[in-house]
Amino acid sequence: MTDTPHRRGADRTEVIMRTTLELGQEIGYAKLSIEAVAARAGAGKHTIYRRWSSKGALLLDSLLSLHESDLDYPDTGDIVADLREQIHAAVDLIGRPPFGPLYQALVGEAQYDPRVAAALNERFIAPQTDKTVARLKKAQDQGQLASGFDLDLAMAILSGPLYFRFLITQEPLTHEYVDRILDALFVGMGPHPQP
Amino acid sequence: MTDTPHRRGADRTEVIMRTTLELGQEIGYAKLSIEAVAARAGAGKHTIYRRWSSKGALLLDSLLSLHESDLDYPDTGDIVADLREQIHAAVDLIGRPPFGPLYQALVGEAQYDPRVAAALNERFIAPQTDKTVARLKKAQDQGQLASGFDLDLAMAILSGPLYFRFLITQEPLTHEYVDRILDALFVGMGPHPQP
């Protein structure tokens, strides 16, 4: 890899994002500041502000850019197994320490700061929704998903129960919980015809 | 109704809670303080602190105590109709102005303050979960709900998609959205046997 100006910029961006995560884990979201990240990363404050408008946007990018590929869907041809694997990875990453408390604080801030809410949706929720719908659409075409299932609701139905536990009851997000939710959603709440 | 000391205490409590909602709607959750509520309600600060440990606990109680009966389940014998009616009432109350922004800020604060999270769960989530499970259990006994449906998941599955929209995508909680979610949950995501 040649040390071009472009590459040096990418390196610096990565150093800033890694520093954000390290510092965030050390001192917590409330105390994290762009000034402190700049000082530890040896970067100018304005360099950071040129790219990120708030510490929420910086933290979100840092979480995602360094781990985005962890959240891609596998495609083994079995939709339930693939959803299970992807959601296990997602709750391992953003529902638990070390990143869990930072992500929780970020969602908390999104309740007050519309810029953080917009960044969360643009950078994370919308792309994940697109990936989820694409994987489910393929399953639907293959007859593995109810033909009438409303794909526009998929993200809310699949991830809503996880956010409910993460943000409201604040119990741990376990693989077992994910599996029980998936089982219940695929079977449905309605009574089944007698055989 | 006689003007007993007990009754005067209940009146004062109600005045404090009404004042909390009025002031919260006027100035927003961030600026709301127990001191300001006390001043406007003509009550002592310590009178309020004796009953409520934080402004989050006070606001939650104010929201709920004055409107709790709005969130009871009807029982017409039709579980889908009854869920729909109760959830419409719930999103009308806590998902929209005037109370919506206050409830949203409260859930935001629950991400930082464990006392607010505990109050939210004890005062609102746990009782609503009990009511929901009781109504669904009856429906299950009457054959209106899948016999194997895991009732312990019911609250997460029914309200998770609402919280996802309320807290994450932050789009309006409409009756139409509630109806689409209920339809999808009752039918289920799995493919249906060919007739």
From TrEMBL, chains A, B:
Q: Which GO terms describe its molecular function?
A: DNA-binding transcription factor activity; transcription cis-regulatory region binding
Q: What is this protein called?
A: Transcriptional regulator, TetR family
DNA-binding region extent: 33-52
Is Transcription tagged as a keyword? Answer: yes
Q: Where is the HTH tetR-type domain?
A: 10-70
Q: Which PROSITE patterns match?
A: HTH_TETR_2 (PS50977)
Q: Which domain of life is it from?
A: Bacteria
Report the Pfam families cross-referenced here: TetR_C_11, TetR_N
Q: Could you tell me which species this protein originates from?
A: Streptosporangium canum
Provide this UniProt record's keywords sorted from A to Z: DNA-binding, Transcription, Transcription regulation
Residues folding into a coiled coil are none
Cite the SUPFAM superfamilies for this sequence.
Answer: Homeodomain-like (SSF46689), Tetracyclin repressor-like, C-terminal domain (SSF48498)
